[in-house]
Structures
1.
Amino acid sequence: MSETLFEKIWNSHVVVERENEPSLIYIDRHLIHEVTSPQAFDGLRANHRTVRRRDLTVATIDHNVPTTDRSLPMIDETSSIQIKTLEKNCKDFGIKLFGINDPNQGIVHVIGPQLGITLPGSTIVCGDSHTSTQGAFGAFAFGIGTSEVEHTLATQTLWLEKPKTFEILATGKRKNPFAVTSKDIILSIIKQIGTDGGTGHVLEYRGDAISDLSMEQRMTICNMSIEAGSRAGLIAPDEKTFDYLNNRKYTPKNYDELVDDWKNNLISDANSKFDKSFTIDVNKIEPQVSWGTNPAMVSDVTGKIPTPEEFGQNNEIQIESAKKALLYMDLKPDTPIVEISIDRVFIGSCTNARLEDLKDAAEIVKGKAINSNVCAMVVPGSQMVKLEAEKLGLDKIFKDANFEWRESGCSMCLGMNPDILKPGERCASTSNRNFEGRQGSGGRTHLVSPVMAAASAIAGHFVDVREWC
Amino acid sequence: MIGNVIKYERDNIDTDVIIPGTYLKIHDYNELATHAMEGLDPEFPSKVKDGDFIVAGKNFGCGSSREHAPIALSTCGIKAVIAISFARIFYRNSVDGAFLLPIEVDDETYRKIANSDQLEINIEKNEIKNITKNETYAMKPFSEIIAKIIAAGGLFKYKK
């Protein structure tokens, strides 16, 4: 029988399956961070449980960490307590932790692949919705809540309802692959299928336009699957995948054998059927800029802010949502996107803070300086990314242009560490969510690619980055 | 289960407005609850009463996997969220920890229920009675799996 890639991964991880019951699924890798794990460890202690597979569990600290000088004491006491709690929990339960001063510290979804912890065909969970990032390696990787973190710690399994499958077929070639990035592809997809288009489904991104992407670009796509409502998105592994994972710190010793097995098995069969399908021609995609307060409120850079009626198309709630979004964003319909001025630029997050993202942004920035009205920062996704970037001299390019060059962490993506927007500040951000208050109470977020963020920092407003390269 | 409605006429009420990121450092549930819905309605914690229901549009709870979202609402006294649809992680978190009931209704029911209406939810009959308006609506039944987890009182109790 023909099966999709997702069905193959699912079937090879079923421990218990009964009719009208959830299936018990084996979990190959469990990643942990400081925010969604404390109550799970409390639960283990209260019930006298241990961690079932310490060897398959790794932790890092990313959400709370300041991105400034780490040798200074932390000012925020509650953040400090949360970090110390994870350190204690990892020590007590014997879990490997990439702590605050570890050279492998970084955003959990960035370090998983970099360390070779993420493997094709595996099941990966983390108490974080952007775990979907790791689906780029052909893994079933998804975010879970703290109750499920506890369940995974205790049993290395989870009770799950089998999701449906959704094919996203990306065809054609990007007209300017430097300026039209994988971020623009995924924003275009979300714009069209909506923030709940993928609910209850695992997305499988397929087609030449996906094969064409590097691993880091594929991660950006899978990362934002959750913004379309899907807990997981995946891409079949290929030579690029196998090359990327070769010789990483935790790459398995029998890697070549594994690769042979993956090549034969980890692909959707020719006649396999998806529950839903959507096709996008990337040839037609322009650089994208979000204008509203959810990731489907997105425009071409050559476009204008829509009227609520244009956006809502006779749907009252949608029209009302657009009105509220424009009020929050302080934007008027029919304003050209390129006329929107910005105060801040954030190049970072699990969506776009890998080496290629920083290289591309640096290419735009080189020899220029940011607009005097703009504050801009670059926050590498991990300490490894930071080190590699510094070896290439990217830090110097950014600093010479007056960007701040920071230590790795989630930073300004989510407003829970010192990197936040002030009320009313408008930010071009390479992160994943433009929700109200996401980057700090009253902050206004526009989601863009790293090259768009870099060019906007220099211009002081959004620009058609295709004209910059 | 009888309670009064706090209605938000919005789609995509995300976890960042239900409990903004800055409060995810808080370990104590009661303290967390003082910031519930702060991103959308800072008055919420003072107006919510034990047993109340939230009514909202499509894709409620989209965004982050933070279980703090259903916990904050539940600790405030919210017993159910009635919405046209839910984001799946929020839905699952609500049921796993037996924090609150995520109840799906159709567009028409969503429109008929008004702020402050008193409702009686009967999950055995898949029915919502609007006591204020003397109307009865159908709710979408829980899947068999979810119904079992709810009946057991959460994920861990379900498989004990």
Note: Chain A touches chain B through 51 residues (CB under 8 Å).
2.
Amino acid sequence: MSIDTGTAAKVAKLARIRVEEDRLPELAQEFSDILDFIEQLNEVDVSGVEPMVSVTPMRLARRVDGVTDGGMQDKILANAPDAREGFFAVPKVVE
Amino acid sequence: MSDLTKLKVAEARDALRAGDVTSAELTEACLAAIDGADALGAFVHKTPDIARQQAAAADARIQAGDAPALCGIPMGIKDLFCTKGVPSQAASRILEGFKPEYESTVTSKLFEAGTVMLGKLNMDEFAMGSSNETSCYGNAVNPWRRSDDAAALTPGGSSGGSASAVAADLCLAATGTDTGGSIRQPAAFTGITGIKPTYGRCSRWGIVAFASSLDQAGPMTKDVRDSAILLNAMCGHDPKDSTSANLPVPDFEAMLTGDIRGKTIGIPREYRIDGISDEIDALWDRGRDMLRDAGAKIVDISLPHTKYALPTYYVIAPAEASSNLARYDGVRYGHRAKLASGEGINDMYEKTRAEGFGPEVQRRVMVGTYVLSAGFYDAYYNKARKVRSLIKRDFELAFADGVDAILTPATPSPAFGLGEMQDADPVQMYLNDVFTVTVNLAGLPGISVPAGLGHEGLPLGLQLIGRPWEEGDLLNTAYALERAVGFVDKPAKWW
């Protein structure tokens, strides 16, 4: 499978990682190499096989849908690069 | 004093109880060893104040006769574990400055058991790597060198700092995590023991997530007994991790009898791969003979889908990573890129992630994004999940046939030189995990035990794979192997 620079640019965009134009050919080549490696999976007959959901068969535990924690705004914001007036601050989102 | 750092956990525990040594003495000896070992790049955030405080508290408890199992034992903690108020960066620039407001379940349990934290240990960025060369802190270095040259070698990865620190006697033991071999491969490269328990044994809560369906924590120690002791302290049910198993945890140490008579050990023929050195093959054969001599029955088995484990892993792990690492967006914690005027929130995300993630992490996040994207989800991600079911079934069939444990090499080679793989393509580096990754895909317990020195004078490891939830039995088989091998070599100090 060969990945072109357009696809590499699209994937970078989806992953929200800035990749400069001149790095795209190298990135596309790396993707192609990794996908070639992954292509081996096409040799395997998986007809009738269920995709694995959980490696240990288990029913996820349920709990009452109630508030069990909270009231720690200062702790939540303590590591924020920019916090103001009790909120996370980001560049303007709405025009 | 320096000999104190050479103690094993069990020895130190007994000496502390007998009053032959104090935790303060042990801790000071380790702190001094750590300060003298910066060349190893193992400890990346030292926490001497916390260590001294915990040691004093431990000594008080021991004196009062109220000492829990591991009271006073100094340890190192992999940087992937969130430790309250202490930098926890997963060796990534993107978590620079992050100090968690909470403690991971595993470290909480270790502290409740009385252990002392000496500091945080180096690793590959977000645990993605097999050589500790993707760390934002720089390389961790193997205390072992080849007998005929002084080239710096990798301690393996991703738990490279943990492996280096334990092998160099900077601490009595360390925590590691293992997503595709990140405990077992570095343990093998540094002549120490490391166990990845069954998926669900150790709570993942508070451990920075890489690939959630594969990640497990485990101990890295100087011998099998220490692994048994520490595993007991680290595992157990935790409601905060929805995949944590609500099963009783047996006393693993009490199960170490060394008696494996009547046990059946499987030798999987698919693990005899092309390109593996004769030395590794010979080591494997010796291990088989030792287990036979100890009374086990040796049978050849087949795990036919082994060959597809690495490509399966390199779909599933990046897919889960791309989802887990979406949280690093420069909003809630860690690094945020400086923006030019007029740049908006998408620029902030893209620049922050480009600056904060190293090349290997970026590559895996993007591969994961690709295999999960519309049009490729079925062809790659679902296909890999189906093959994963087949890989797991291979093991289930072997166990159903009466196999108690499976013996394999731990790694395809001894430790390689730092920088040696620089020009290799990423897939070459991935091959390091060829013997270990199947175990994560199948959710099984696996342990790496030192099994001898190769012709270059470097340690080599053997891996034992056990039935799910039977870590006690697995540790006992490893204990029998350890006794038969009698590995006592230590790296000559150069640092």
Note: The two ends of chain A are 41 Å apart (CA to CA).
